[in-house]
Design a protein that fits this description.
DHBP synthase; alpha/beta; six-stranded mixed beta sheet; four-stranded mixed beta sheet; about 200 residues
Amino acid sequence: MIDRIKHELKNGGAVVLPTETVYGLFAKALDEKAVDHVYQIKGRPRDKALNLNVASLDDILNFSNNQPTYLQQLVENFLPGPLTIILEANDKVPCWVNSDLTTVGFRIPSHPITLELIRECGPLIGPSANISGCESGVNFKQILEVFDREVLGIEDDSFLTGQDSTILDLSSDKVKILRQGSITREDILAKIPEIPFEEV
């Protein structure tokens, strides 16, 4: 199955893979047709940007500008894991991924199979494996039914928490939590007390 999924990804297809939060619908981020396909089958609005799923800090540096000094500490302490980091995008990020925004989000999922596929085939997009506006998918068999069994995937329901990742915006001087997931402000400050969070 892994070889079939690699072949599907490398040839512009979409596959369902587990992260540590929910299942994602993954495809090659630098392949415009593959990304279009994911937007189409999810019914996702085109102005809703996607994240880059990458495998390392080097990958994050390769697709971003003006990284803060504490970025490496964040990655070392919380990634791979349920954290999305938003940074200023550089010109290597295609407009069909970040919807022409000046920023882009990064994820490093901790599921070992998914992470290995990102290393081999990435960067990948990986929005939640659901129809846009519906509940995020945590049951593999139900997800395949939603997509009429037209996509390949890896089943591992037991790995998922069902809770979305924390989204941390690092694109300005003050750090903001845009979505609260399992990683809290207190968790981050306990590891990196110098992070300049926006006042709440």
